[in-house]
Amino acid sequence: MTIKKICGIGAGYVGGPTCSVIALMCPDIRVTVVDKSKEKIAQWNSTKLPIYEPGLELVVKKCRGKNLFFSTDIEAAIKEADLIFISVNTPTKTFGIGKGRAADLKYVENTARMIADVATSDKIVVEKSTVPVKAAESIMHILRANHKPGVTYQILSNPEFLAEGTAIDNLINPDRVLIGGEDSPQGREAVEKLCKIYENWINRDKIFTTNTWSSELSKLAANAFLAQRISSINSLSPVCEATGADVTEVARAVGLDSRIGSKFLQASVGFGGSCFQKDLLNLVYICECLNLPEVAAYWQQVIDMNEYQKSRFSTKVIESLFNTVTDKRIAMLGFAFKKNTGDTRESPAITVAKNLLDEGAVLHIYDPKVEEFQIIDNLSAFDIDNIKNRVNIYHDAYSATKNTHAIVLCTEWDEFMELDYERIYVQMTKPAYIFDGRKILDHEKLQKIGFIVQTIGKRVSRIAVSKTWGSSTQM
Ligand code: NAI
């Protein structure tokens, strides 16, 4: 039996784009994406999709109503599917055992129980969500303990490696596809069926099959390695600032070693996104549970370095502005955790905004793709006085920066490189500051205009701050 019908459970940043690309590449397969959120499904069926991702709209337009469907009828979609992708969220637990570190698997478990309740024919169940090692065992346990006579299940691990902002390209041209399955004839058969789906557009030599546990652990390991590279280069940025080295030059020199490579060595205000921190915390927790404290401490340090970088950047802003930002208007350019997405989960901008608000600043925030309600919602999570009057959202960079004392750039949107900074300078309070948390601006040009420029990992405008007297001298 070949796969004719697929059900994708979870219509989020992973489930939506992955299922849409499968529908595009496999016109003979009917793909139904389901979610418990009625609003989200209504958006997937509208002209304004619930997530922004370059190229996604076009893919959805091409397939929706033909072989791609979005629905809230989860039971019907499970019943008719030959293969089910589980792409639900696996956030960090906020309560109980493992609070703040372990992955919360309640959504995965709920879907497993629903599949067991509803299925009347054999199913291949594929974990696409990022899960702790051995999660497939729990899913299998639930399914097999509740199975109906004659219904069999195979569980596969097929972690998703897409990056938000480039998801469609990553899905169409992946570096690799990883599929883990049970080492049994039935397991191998299920792996083969999933391989066949991907082979519609991906070369077989890019499809890597392993045992289930290697596959599950590889996803956590890949994110841990990526985050570690960022923390490694970020850890050198204060060394550069203190010595006169330039972190961009150091990163380039280091990255030219072919054993190291140049990617993911861009120093910045810190990493964000829903995955890196969550998956690292999960890895740390697994190591602690396995009684491997040294390994846990090693990976914990990657997260600690990221926290340090975010707070170091906020402190730099405050210190440079004469050690006080109380009642100062500060423009924040960018709120998403990176460019080309509207996602703000774990965005460094949230931490920077909170730190500035704690010090009494008034924020003028602009992001090209993040909605106003999202920013307010993110900042409302903190106990901040009078937040409504102190957080103002703008719809373009020029109005956001008007009459402000400083610009804090938190997201590397291309449009921020193309702004008319002379125009911006004229309408700012003087001295006018720019803090480039992403190292994307032309610092020399900005200094010529008159800005005092600060960035990460390089001395641009030199500042001598007297901590005792709270005054600073710009040079
Ligand atoms: P998301 O939060 O955007 O989407 C998850 C969706 O699942 C939500 O719409 C939610 O309503 C739905 N859902 C939860 N329980 C459900 C249920 N029982 N029935 C139906 N729908 C249900 O999450 P996102 O970002 O798509 O992540 C999903 C998984 O993929 C996570 O495990 C994440 O770690 C992993 N991942 C995420 C990547 C990313 O860039 N966002 C990249 C690679 C993996």
TrEMBL record:
<dbReference type="InterPro" id="IPR014027">
    <property type="entry name" value="UDP-Glc/GDP-Man_DH_C"/>
</dbReference>
<keyword id="KW-0520">NAD</keyword>
<dbReference type="GO" id="GO:0003979">
    <property type="term" value="F:UDP-glucose 6-dehydrogenase activity"/>
</dbReference>
<dbReference type="GO" id="GO:0006065">
    <property type="term" value="P:UDP-glucuronate biosynthetic process"/>
</dbReference>
<dbReference type="Pfam" id="PF03721">
    <property type="entry name" value="UDPG_MGDP_dh_N"/>
</dbReference>
<dbReference type="GO" id="GO:0006024">
    <property type="term" value="P:glycosaminoglycan biosynthetic process"/>
</dbReference>
<dbReference type="InterPro" id="IPR001732">
    <property type="entry name" value="UDP-Glc/GDP-Man_DH_N"/>
</dbReference>
<protein>
    <recommendedName>
        <fullName>UDP-glucose 6-dehydrogenase</fullName>
        <ecNumber>1.1.1.22</ecNumber>
    </recommendedName>
</protein>
<dbReference type="Pfam" id="PF03720">
    <property type="entry name" value="UDPG_MGDP_dh_C"/>
</dbReference>
<comment type="similarity">
    <text>Belongs to the UDP-glucose/GDP-mannose dehydrogenase family.</text>
</comment>
<dbReference type="GO" id="GO:0051287">
    <property type="term" value="F:NAD binding"/>
</dbReference>
<comment type="pathway">
    <text>Nucleotide-sugar biosynthesis; UDP-alpha-D-glucuronate biosynthesis; UDP-alpha-D-glucuronate from UDP-alpha-D-glucose: step 1/1.</text>
</comment>
<dbReference type="GO" id="GO:0005634">
    <property type="term" value="C:nucleus"/>
</dbReference>
<keyword id="KW-0560">Oxidoreductase</keyword>
<dbReference type="InterPro" id="IPR014026">
    <property type="entry name" value="UDP-Glc/GDP-Man_DH_dimer"/>
</dbReference>
<dbReference type="InterPro" id="IPR017476">
    <property type="entry name" value="UDP-Glc/GDP-Man"/>
</dbReference>
<comment type="function">
    <text>Involved in the biosynthesis of glycosaminoglycans; hyaluronan, chondroitin sulfate, and heparan sulfate.</text>
</comment>
<feature type="domain" description="UDP-glucose/GDP-mannose dehydrogenase C-terminal">
    <location>
        <begin position="331"/>
        <end position="443"/>
    </location>
</feature>
<dbReference type="InterPro" id="IPR028356">
    <property type="entry name" value="UDPglc_DH_euk"/>
</dbReference>
<dbReference type="Pfam" id="PF00984">
    <property type="entry name" value="UDPG_MGDP_dh"/>
</dbReference>
